[in-house]
Q: What sequence folds into this?
């Protein structure tokens, strides 16, 4: 239990540092499937009780490789998965991830059936320090950091909420050559 608490505290500190002082983005050729799986495994390890009743569906061909920063995208997926788990509030549910590749873009859809986001909050969720959680739970920086990570990669992040579901769509340029993005 103490190890998990320390890991959660470290994640909060990482969020605060990422928000306050973003690093220069350096990309490398990496497999998005491996990055998604690593994020899923880390979230399950850090939140074993929250993730106990959750089923996962990851639709992505292995070796979907393109230029991105794997550490930053893992952080993005950890934040999205963590938000889903918190929304389930120890209940049963499903987190679905689908990767679609076009000629110029990679689209990653992260969807849960945890009840959705109320219409009056959907426009606020990417704002720094915004949270709908109880006081003392999280920093309200997770989705703001996700938005920043996607922007750094010259991509787009959007959200839709419908029929008690929430769907985040991460759209990133599909580049296969070594590139440094500032």
A:
């Amino acid at each position: 239990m103490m190890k998990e608490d320390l890991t959660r505290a470290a994640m909060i500190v990482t969020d605060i540092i990422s928000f306050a002082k973003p690093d220069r983005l350096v990309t490398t050729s990496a497999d998005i499937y491996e990055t998604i799986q690593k994020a899923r495994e880390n979230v399950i390890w850090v939140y074993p009780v929250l993730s106990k009743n959750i089923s996962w569906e990851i639709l992505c061909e292995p070796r979907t490789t393109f230029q991105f920063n794997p550490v930053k995208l893992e952080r993005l997926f950890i934040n999205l998965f963590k938000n889903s788990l918190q929304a389930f509030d120890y209940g049963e549910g499903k987190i679905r991830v689908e990767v679609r590749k076009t000629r110029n873009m990679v689209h990653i859809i992260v969807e849960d059936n945890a009840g959705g986001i109320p219409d009056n909050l959907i426009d606020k969720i990417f704002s720094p320090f915004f949270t709908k959680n109880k006081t003392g739970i999280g920093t309200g920086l997770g989705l703001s950091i996700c938005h920043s990570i996607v922007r750094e990669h010259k991509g787009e992040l959007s959200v839709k909420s419908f029929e008690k579901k929430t769907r985040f769509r991460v759209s990133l340029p599909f580049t296969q050559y070594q590139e440094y993005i500032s």
Summary: The chain has a mean pLDDT of 83. The longest helix spans residues 2-20. Residues 44 and 133 are 20 Å apart (CA to CA). The two ends are 39 Å apart (CA to CA).
